[in-house]
Amino acid sequence: MVNKNQNNVDFGYKSVKKSDKQKLVNNVFNAVARKYDLMNDITSLGIHRSWKSDLINWIAPQSNQNLADIAGGTGDIAYKFLNSGGNSAHIFDINKEMIQVSKKKYRNINNLEWSIASAENIPALDNSFERATMSFGLRNITDRNKSLQEIYRILKPGGRFICLEFSHVENDFLKKFYDLWSFRIMPLIGDKVTGNKEAYTYLVESIRKFPTQPELSQMFSEVGFSRVKYRNLSNGIVALHSGWKI
Ligand SMILES: C[S@@+](CC[C@H](N)C(=O)[O-])C[C@H]1O[C@@H](n2cnc3c(N)ncnc32)[C@H](O)[C@@H]1O
């Protein structure tokens, strides 16, 4: 969404200075890192697992493919990629706490690496990965265009990027229920489980401010991705966007 003040970006429903957003986002994930997986299960009623499996099914990992999982957090996507036949996975995430949780969870998994790094400046060579993913990350990034450019840069020609993100619900009845669940119930659960209501208020608001499915497709195309497509899951509660570097 366009913010009227060019020096500002959205942080949920607040408009904040571009230079302040990352710190605010880091505070959110510092606060919830230890309970992040549990909260995902509670607030999505476990459905995030099936959305993540849909992402992996669409990517269809092969034994000659190496994955960059950007904003990889506690590591679900990288793990599922390896478990479904991918060769190696590298998680890039800006938050040390989230990476620590992931390292602990997957310490016995081979061919998995981690880097503390921003999606806006990925420490990887040009043309170095066959596949890239970003799951529930893009919404939190200050300069989304820059991070899409970075993902495009590190993909090999012929490589593919799939993004899983909350999106915009298409069914009016479901939308009413979903709004009630996310604005009323989720912050309360967040408060009870993590002691941080604000973090979950931000998460819910940031979803509503995120570009629509066609707008995000357009952003993919503008940075150079080809054959851009999207699929709605759960009626658009989340969407998968796919683009190729041809
Ligand atoms: C909602 S979590 C998603 C984690 C994981 N991908 C998943 O699907 O469960 C968002 C992640 O984005 C990370 N993040 C936020 N800003 C980032 C940035 N600029 N660069 C890289 N990661 C970032 C956070 O630290 C957090 O781990």
- CATH hierarchy class name: Alpha Beta
Bound molecules: S-adenosylmethionine
Distance between the termini: 28 Å
Q: Tell me what the CATH architecture is.
A: 3-Layer(aba) Sandwich
* Class computed from helices, strands and strand pairing: alpha/beta
Helix content: 40-55%
Strand order, largest beta sheet: 5-4-3-6-7-9-8
Q: What is the 3D shape? A: globular
H and E string: EEHHHEHEHEEHEHHHEE
Number of H- or I-type helical stretches: 9
Give the low-pLDDT segments.
Answer: none
Number of strands: 9
**How much strand content do the residues show?**
15-25%
Radius of gyration: 17 Å
Q: Mean pLDDT, nearest integer?
A: 95
Number of domains: 1
Give the CATH topology.
Answer: Rossmann fold
| Annotated CATH homologous superfamily | Vaccinia Virus protein VP39
Which sheet architecture does the biggest sheet show?
Answer: 7 strands, mixed
Walkthrough of the structure:
By secondary structure, this protein is α/β, with parallel strands linked by helices. The chain has a single domain (17-169, 202-245), classed as Vaccinia Virus protein VP39 (Rossmann fold, 3-Layer(aba) Sandwich), CATH 3.40.50. The chain has nine helices and nine strands. The chain has helices at 18-32, 36-43, 47-59, 76-83, 96-105, 144-154, 172-194, 197-209, 213-223; strands at 8-11, 14-17, 66-70, 88-93, 112-116, 129-135, 155-166, 226-233, 238-245. Strand 6 (129-135), helix 6 (144-154) and strand 7 (155-166) form a beta-alpha-beta unit. The chain is globular and about 45 Å long. S-adenosylmethionine (SAM) is lined by residues 22, 25, 29, 71-74, 76-77, 93-95, 98, 118-120, 135-137, 140-141.
